[in-house]
Design goal:
By secondary structure, the protein is α/β, with parallel strands linked by helices. Helices cover about 20% and strands about 35% of the residues. Helix 5 links the parallel strand 12 and strand 13. The longest helix has 13 residues. It starts with 8 loop residues before the first strand and ends in a 7-residue tail after the last strand.
């Protein structure tokens, strides 16, 4: 474990960067951390005897005393599939924030694996204060309801984490995302970085 210098903001991709699956991003600021997503990646045919792969969480386990909360952007397995494996090692006292439908999917995973966890429902437009971080939840559309983007605000600026999203003016079983609210983010916040889903963006 190490102490983070004051006003140092770190974005640590534990998985899901330039790959499909294993989505997990750590935000570290002033000796406090939040984890965004706990996804798996399905094994390829060459990984004999392996069902799935999870992110390398060694840094989180070694510094779990800094971890204040976990946020889940939505309920797809590449974002929640490693939750049972990770919470088994982290313990059940760290709060997990997600939309109601995402938490239902998480509960199913936890029940299957006999894991106890502290899950809390959050809604779009809700703002939570987690230590020195302010987290604003933003509704986005995807191929599953209950998806949230996150604006993580610090004293030195903000990070906009989009989660997985798509442009869909007529989503099934969901309400359209507000492009005005997305536009307002850049005027309300000093955005230092945008962490955006880009699956298939090159095709």
């Amino acid at each position: 474990p190490h102490k983070t210098p004051k006003n140092t903001l770190r974005i640590i991709h534990l998985g899901g960067c330039e790959e499909v699956g294993k989505n997990a991003t750590l935000i570290e600021y002033n000796d406090q951390m939040i984890l965004i997503d706990m996804g798996l990646q399905f094994a390829n045919p060459f990984m004999r005897g392996v069902d799935y792969v999870i992110p390398d969480m060694e840094y989180v386990y070694k510094n779990k005393h800094k971890l204040k909360a976990i946020f889940i952007t939505h309920g797809h397995l590449d974002h929640i599939g490693a939750a049972s494996d990770i919470i088994k090692k982290l313990g059940s006292d760290i709060p997990i924030y997600a939309s109601a439908i995402t938490n239902l999917l998480l509960h199913k995973k936890f029940e299957e694996n006999q894991i106890k966890a502290k899950t809390l429902d959050i809604k779009a437009d809700e703002i939570l204060q987690i230590g020195s971080l302010s987290i604003e939840c933003v509704h986005v559309n995807h191929t599953i309801p209950g998806c949230l983007a996150l604006v993580i605000k610090t004293d030195i600026g903000s990070i906009f984490h989009t989660g997985d999203w798509k442009y869909d003016p007529n989503p099934i079983a969901d309400t359209p995302m507000s492009w005005q609210k997305i536009e307002n983010i850049k005027t309300k916040h000093n955005i230092l970085a945008v962490l955006a889903d880009s699956t298939s963006v090159s095709t």
